[in-house]
Amino acid sequence: MPESETPETPVTFPPAFLWGAATSAYQIEGAVREGGRTPSIWDTFSHTPGKTAGGEHGDIAVDHYNRYRDDVALMADLGLSAYRFSISWSRVQPTGRGPAVQVGLDFYRRLVDELLAQGIKPAVTLYHWDLPQELEDAGGWPERDTAYRFAEYAQIVGEALGDRVEQWITLNEPWCSAFLGYGSGVHAPGRTEAAASLKAAHHLNLAHGLGATALRAAMPARNSVAVSLNSSVVRPFSQDPADLAAARKIDDLANGVFHGPMLHGVYPESLYAATELITDWSYVQDGDLAAINQPLDALGLNYYTPTLVSAADAQADGARADGHGASSFSPWPGADDVAFHQTPGERTEMGWTIDPTGLHDLIMRYTREAPGLPLYITENGAAYDDKPDPDGRVHDPERISYLHGHLAAVRRAISDGADVRGYYLWSLLDNFEWAYGYGKRFGAVYVDYSTLARTPKSSAHWYSQAARTGTLPAVTWADAPPLAATD
User: Which domains does the chain have, with CATH numbers?
Assistant: First the structure.
C-alpha cells in the first residue's frame, strides 16, 4: 500500500470506477435447446462420459435464460454499475455460419434493455469458450476458417447490440481455449494435440483482430473494443539461470503468445525457438500479424493466482502442479523441461494460492507493456465451500477477505500510476464451473441447485457496500440485512 496509508486507512476508489460482476453464457443460461440454439463444444464435452465431475452439464445451469429479469433486479439491488456477460455463439448463429437466428439475438436485446433500464452498463464478451459444434466438426480453432467465421459472427452481434452496448470484448482467456481445449484436453473440445494447440492460439489471435475490425465497422465509433487475457504472473523458483529460463519459457507460452501479436504485432522469437520441434509456424501468413495488431480501446485482465516455476528435475515424476486440471497431456507445448510448484500460502477451494501481490504486479506489467491503454479487471474471485446456515444466510468471510485484498491491490496500482477503470467480480452467481461441474462455488450469490433460488452471500453485501460508496468496507464488516432470496 502507499506509504501514506495504514491498515486502518479507508481504501477509496476514483468516482468513475466501475463496480461490476461477470458471468458466461454456458455457465448460467441453460435453455440449451430453446430458440433454435444448437450444441456448442461444451454441450458435447460435458455430455461425454468422464469429462466433467459427476457427468454434470449446463443444460439447465442456473436458468438465467428464463430468470434474467430477476437476476438483473438482483444486480440493481446490489448497486452494481456494470455487468459483463457473454453471448452464446450457437444461440445467435447455430451452425457458426450464415444468417443469425433473431430469436437468439432477441434474448440478448431484452437482457441489454433490462440492464440499461436499471442503470447498469452492459459489457459484452463475444466468445467465452463455447464454439458451435459444427465449426469444431470442421476442425475448430486449429483451422484458419474459424477466425473468419468469428469475424462474421462479431459483425452480426455488433450490428444488433452496438447501438446500446458500449463495452465490447472479443475473446475471453484465449489461452484456455487453445491450450486446455487442444493441448491438455481438460476443456472442450478435449483434444490433446500440441501442434494443434499452437495453431489454435494463432487463429484465436487472428479471430480477435478480424473480430475487432468487424465490430468497428458495425458499431458507433464511441464504442470500446477490448480483449480479456488471463495473463500469468510467472515467477522463477530461484534466481538460478535455469529457473529464470524456465520462467521466460512459460511467460512466452502464457502471455507473449497473445499479447505479443495483439499489442506489438510480433510473436516472441524465444517462443518460436521453444516450439520449433512441434510446429514450423507456417500457418502465420503474410498480413496476419498486422490484422491481429488492431488498436485496442482497453485491455481486460483476469487474475486468480501466480505461477511458480523452475527448471525440471530430470528425476522428478509427479503431477504437474500448474493449477489447470489433471491430465497426462501438458497445456505447455515445448515446456517439458519446466516444473511447476505450489506457491506458499492460504488456498481457495480450487487449490489456488491467495496472493493479491500478483494482481498488483500484473497491472503494473501491462501499464508498462501498453502505456496509455486503459485497464479493467474483467475477472477476479475465489471458490469456497459455501453453505447456508440454519437461518438461510450464507456467510463467506474468506471471500470477503479475498476481495478486500485484491481490490486493495488494484487501488495500490492506481496510486502507482495505473489507469484501471473498473473491476468485475467473478462471479455474480454460483454456476457450472466447467469440468468441475457444480462443485466449485465462485458466486457472490448462492444458488440452490435443487430449487435455483438465489441468496446473496455475505460477500455480496460487502461488495454492494463497496460499489455504493467507492470505499472498501473493513474485512470484519458486519452483514447487512439479507436481501430476500429469489425463487
Answer: 18-469 (3.20.20.80)
